[in-house]
Amino acid sequence: MVDAKPRVLFNGDEIAARVREIAGEISAKYPDGGVLFIGILKGSFVFLADLVRAVGRPCHIDFVRISSYGSDTASSGKLDILMDVHIPVRDRHVILVDDIVDTGLTVSQYRERILQMGPRSVEIAALIDKTGRREKHVSLDYCGFRIEGGFVVGYGLDWDERYRYLNSVCLLEGE
Ligand code: PRP
């Protein structure tokens, strides 16, 4: 299978620089480490892997698989949890990590769930904040890049399971 050539929006160097800056903010806020990073699969796997290494402090890492349904459907606000967090959340500083926030439904709903588990704090880190279709307000504590719209792939992000391997975040034109 050969992927079509998407247009580079943020190249590997630009992404690495932003990841280092975000990691610096996290390190400054939690100098002793101990953060529980929860990656929302699948898209977060590249960002999370780079982020925790850039932070370079002891931490816990877990992953969840969830999908949400838009508020314009009968299943408004429903969160399907395919794989939930396993590491205990109580009294921990949690950072939810996602590749992209689009409508905001996924991360905002999962944040509510985590809050019910009694964490010490919950923050959200996303590589891409795509603002144009937001349905649920999300306060991003750490954000790599902000875009208004467009279909983006690469660095974990897919279109029909393709392009996740790309080193850059690219715009899929014509989609
Ligand atoms: C994407 C992305 C976020 C979510 C954002 O996941 O990784 O988790 O959608 O969308 P939202 O803000 O509109 O809720 P997707 O369901 O495509 O799964 P994937 O990560 O496995 O590609």
Enumerate how many helices there are, as a single number: 3
What is the succession of H and E elements? Answer: EHEHEEEHEEEE
The residue fraction in helices comes out at 10-25%
Overall CATH architecture: 3-Layer(aba) Sandwich
Average pLDDT level: 93
Low-pLDDT ranges: none
Provide the fold topology:
Blueprint: E1 7-10, H1 12-29, E2 35-41, H2 45-55, E3 59-68, E4 79-83, E5 93-101, H3 105-115, E6 121-130, E7 142-147, E8 152-153, E9 169-171
Parallel strand pairs: 2-3, 2-5, 5-6, 6-7
Antiparallel strand pairs: 1-9, 3-4, 8-9
Helix pairs in contact: 1-2
Bound molecules: 1-O-pyrophosphono-5-O-phosphono-alpha-D-ribofuranose.
1-O-pyrophosphono-5-O-phosphono-alpha-D-ribofuranose binds at residues 40-43, 67-68, 98-106, 158.
Question: What's this entry about, in short?
Answer:
The protein is of the alpha/beta class. The chain has three helices and nine strands.
Describe what you observe in this structure:
By secondary structure, this protein is an alpha/beta fold. The protein has one domain: Rossmann fold (3-Layer(aba) Sandwich). The chain is 23% helix and 32% strand. The chain is built from three helices and nine strands, in the order βαβαβββαββββ. Helix 1 packs across helix 2. The site of 1-O-pyrophosphono-5-O-phosphono-alpha-D-ribofuranose (PRP) has 16 residues, from strand 2, strand 3, strand 5 and helix 3.
Index terms:
175 residues, three-stranded antiparallel beta sheet, six-stranded mixed beta sheet, alpha/beta, Rossmann fold, binds 1-O-pyrophosphono-5-O-phosphono-alpha-D-ribofuranose, 3 helices
